[in-house]
């Protein structure tokens, strides 16, 4: 457990510097490296066996892809009313509905994939997965906050 904490602290300290040095054209490469790190972190936190890892990574990638698409769809709808100009009540209603439905949609996506995870992960591992995701995302938000303060 201490190794995980040390690894996470090292990541927290190096990612802002690393991210600042990356140019825009390397953004996709940086995202891939961050995703790889996240997967390794989750595998360690969830205590995946070698056998479980292959199934987990494949399924988790699909889960993340669907969650990102739901967020992208919501942002596309809300972006329209953020632009200057007059907007109809129907446009605002659509934006509000998109924002309100996003947690429901992502919850449904997670539920669908957690049903599949249950076929090869224990309930303890499912619990650890949710906990690890929250910890990882919290650390990323802290890094973003620190990065904005340094700029």
Strand content: under 5%
Pick out the low-confidence regions.
none
Count of beta strands: 0
- The radius of gyration is 18 Å
Instruction: Describe the sheet with the most strands.
Output: none
Fraction of residues in H or I helices: over 70%
How far apart are the termini? Answer: 33 Å
Average of the residue pLDDT scores: 86
- Summing up helix and strand content along with how strands pair, one would put the structural category as mainly alpha
Q: What letter string, H or E per element, gives the SSE order? A: HHHHH
Sum up the overall morphology in one term: globular
Question: How many distinct helices?
Answer: 5
Describe the structure.
- The chain is mostly helical and 151 residues long.
- 85% of the residues lie in helices and 0% in strands.
- It is built from 5 helices and no strands.
- The longest helix is centred in the middle third of the chain and has 33 residues.
- The radius of gyration is 18 Å and the shape is globular.
Question: What's the helix and strand layout?
Answer:
Elements (H helix, E strand, L loop, with lengths): L1 H20 L5 H19 L4 H33 L6 H29 L5 H28 L1
Question: What features would you highlight for this structure?
Answer:
single chain, 151 residues, mainly alpha, 5 helices, 0% strand, globular
In a nutshell, what does this entry contain?
This protein has five helices and no strands.
């Amino acid at each position: 457990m201490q190794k995980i904490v040390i690894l996470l602290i090292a990541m927290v300290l190096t990612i802002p510097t690393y991210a600042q040095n990356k140019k825009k054209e390397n953004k996709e490469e940086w995202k891939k490296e961050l995703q790889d790190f996240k997967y390794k972190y989750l595998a360690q936190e969830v205590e995946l066996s070698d056998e479980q890892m292959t199934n987990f990574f494949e399924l988790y990638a699909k889960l993340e892809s669907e969650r990102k698409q739901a967020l992208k769809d919501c942002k596309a709808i809300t972006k329209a009313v953020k632009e200057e100009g007059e907007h109809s009540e129907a446009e605002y209603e659509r934006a509000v509905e998109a924002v309100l439905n996003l947690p429901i949609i992502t919850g449904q996506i997670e539920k669908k994939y957690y049903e599949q995870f249950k076929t090869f992960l224990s309930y303890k591992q499912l619990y650890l997965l949710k906990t690890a995701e929250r910890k990882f995302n919290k650390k990323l938000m802290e890094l973003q906050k620190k990065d904005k303060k340094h700029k």
